[in-house]
Amino acid sequence: MPEEITIAPAPARRSVARAVGIGCAVLVAVPLLLVIAFLVWLAVVTKDASDFPRVAPEEMAARAVDRSREAYDVLGFTRTIPPGVEELGVSTENTLSSGYCYRGGMTDETVDGAYRMSHEWALDDVPAEQAVPALRRLHDHLKKTGWEISSYRENVSGDYWSLFASRSDGEERVSFQWYADRDYFSGDASTSCAVDPGWKKGDLGLAGENLTPDDFGPSGKGVAGDD
Fold this sequence. Notes:
The chain has helices at 10-45, 57-75, 128-144; strands at residues 84-85, 93-99, 114-123, 148-154, 160-167, 172-179, 184-190, 194-195. By secondary structure, it is of the alpha+beta class. Strands 1, 2, 3, 4, 5, 6, 7 and 8 form an 8-stranded antiparallel β-sheet that branches. The longest helix is centred in the N-terminal third of the chain and has 36 residues, at 10-45.
């Protein structure tokens, strides 16, 4: 008996062909859209020198110190700290440092002439009865003044407390830690990125990397506290 062969009607064959064509178009279009979206995203997030304000390192360093001093007042410390540090994590500290600014996106390239300033300070001999309420007070103050609390840790055992906050979409950052094992309190304030107006193509090193702060202490505005 001859084999029976069924041939689909012409309209059905056209429907199948149309479906296959649409499927192929989708397979081509989706990767293309993803590529376009990726290129748009990369263009949006990558930065160059024109994306940052032109500000001298000395001014940005002053801003970082101002952020530290505001926190210092809220914490209630009254001691004046001389510039420098003798032994990290042990002695008092009052230093400035400069860091790179990156283009972002999928690249780890730095932006020529751009930098961010940080001010680091620390106090020894800060007991728990002073450090704990001070850090809680600062936590509340930062929340009330527009900072986003990134992390706040009150250790149950009491050996390590920390507070991290940021604002301006994370461009400005502050951090504070207290170590009970050595009664040591440290703070750090970092500014947003800026471009050194004096930078020239071919210059080496970071703007502001050799700056030294003045003596650091309370503002004298009468914020309550005891050191």
